[in-house]
Input
Amino acid sequence: MAIRRGRGVAAINYPTGMNLGGDPTQALVHSTPTGNFMVTLSSVDLGQGMKQIMAQICAETIGVPTDRVVVDTADTDTGPHCMGTFASRGTHRAGNAVIRAAREARQVMLEVAAEELEVNASDLETDGQGNILVKGAPQRSISIFDVALSAHFKRGRSISGRGMFLIPRSYPEKETGAMKPSTCYAHACTVAEVEVDDETGEVTVLTVRNVFEIGRALNPKMVEQQLVGGSWMGISHALYETTEPYYPNRDHGGTDFNQYL
Output
């Protein structure tokens, strides 16, 4: 009988999305009469936090608090087209589409505000708190609430925008066969140290260390949750989702979900 120690190393290069046949995503953004904003997508939140990220992106682009944005992913039949929620493409593909739609909506919003304040739209800026200010003269301002009311009931304008983000299809080069099946990548490495009782087969995980290259973290807390959750998921797959801890004799293994752990 002995306790044996081992170390495992795994490294990945993970592609985001795909463009073997093109990879488009569309988004729609519009204001309600009270100055809240609705983002309409056919990209689906599977629990990865996409709705929160899309709300952040829209809010930052337009210049309003995040709680003034609602993301609707309810119906892929009637919503704007999306290739789907897969390959970790949501933030990159749908996020860029939302930016473009929100920019268009913001421009209309500033044009309506300019009419109300009798200035040029290029002379206006947002404060991120729900107000539009004249650059260099912040005492001259109007709330986005009032701008939305004016657009709907006075000016006859729709504060809305459409966004499309397309990764063009990649074709192989005839001479070399080279192509670009993806457009952006994440890189990671995980090192795990474990101890194994060679008599009972009991495994003790001592440490799991992860290094990830993720680019810009739009929501650092959610990124941390995904990385920690991914580690637990990997540990669970390795130790509980297969029969290896009991191989080759299953006499002491669980037989149903009540004995799963």
Q: What stands out?
A: The chain has a mean pLDDT of 89. Residues 162 and 186 are 29 Å apart (CA to CA). The chain is about 30% helix and 30% strand. The domain at 3-14+183-259 is CATH 3.30.365.10 (Aldehyde Oxidoreductase; domain 4).
